[in-house]
# Entry
Amino acid sequence: MAQGRFNRRVWAWALYDWANSAYATTVMAGFFPVFFKEYWSAGVPAGQSSFHLGLTNSFASLVIVLLAPLLGAIADRGRSRKRFLAIGAGIGIAATGGLFFLGLGAWKAAAVLYTVATIGFSASLIFYDSLIVSVAGEGRFDTVSALGFSLGYLGGGILLGLNVLMTAFPAWFGFEGIAEAVRFSFVTVAVWWLVFSLPLFRWVEEPPCATTVVHGLSMVRAGFRQLVGTFREVRRVRMAFLFLLAYWCYIDGVDTVVRMAVDYGLALGFGSQDLLLALLLTQFVGFPAAVVFGRLGERHGPKRGIYIGLAVYVGVVFYASQMESVIEFYALAVAVGLVQGGVQALSRSLYARLIPPEKSGEFFGFFNMLGKFAAVIGPVMVGWTSAVTGEPRLSLLTLLLLFGIGALVLTRVDVEQGQRAVGRGG
# Structure
């Protein structure tokens, strides 16, 4: 994918994926689950710590569920997408850096800071996703969205690789031991996230507002009115909401695999270093795979690419419920890396086709709301089943229902009809 195909605004926008993916990889999927179980939850039974982790993820998601559509509507009316993105990122960066200061056994404080950081991270994505309509032409949604995810995989993978190296050889970096290296890794995430967010604020323009721009309390009131008005437009944007229903189901399974994979591997008795290396493998496989999925969506439509990804996830869940060795975990990491970014990128680009561009903040608020509402259920469902039955393999199979329902509802989404309904080319 040559650089000449994209202008400076596109690259600046996509670099925010590179920036925030450090949190998604090193913190959410990598070090936090391991450190939470083995360091901050020292002395707590494994099943109980899994439940605490699932509950923490779910509470953070619930907050975003409640706030996302309103925040998006307010940002639309106040022409404040970049400002709200900066606030969310700032909160996430500060809370992530704060994890460095927590000592052995401080699982409650760790859960609080992780919750705050995840809320900031998720809130920033609402406004980041909505900016795609101002940086990509309608025919470029698939490739631009995929560029963001591919850079996210690469950037997140590079920093995760450094962090894994820090924990494998702490003396090389002047650390007293693994625990200090892991704690310092949270600082590197905060700095990485901050530095690589700056191009977006420098070169990506705030999209125009279709209505009068308002500020302060008037912006909040206008946001509420716009939100109410959108609910009244359900028939006009029926395909967008039908897609959201499908997305709600299948992204639950995707997010749960991402958030609970390391915890699942630990429950099966695999070593934490092996699991982190598998996660690193996923990142570097995901970089070129997301680009390929973007081209697939551009040529054959995003729905087909999403179906392929969901089929692979079904196979991954079946295989994971039977695996016995770390080598098998590595194989599954490759399989997930091949499709994870593709499903996420094509979901974002498909949805962008189905929404009114002047209300992108609000509609991507709904997009993130339903994604996070799904994540309220998934981690708790897996964690609770594991804690009650004592059998993590059984809990993983519950995800098959979510992938199946999501794929079935997606068959009802008529993309061309949805584009015509919002005045886009069909």
Observations:
- The longest helix spans residues 8-40.
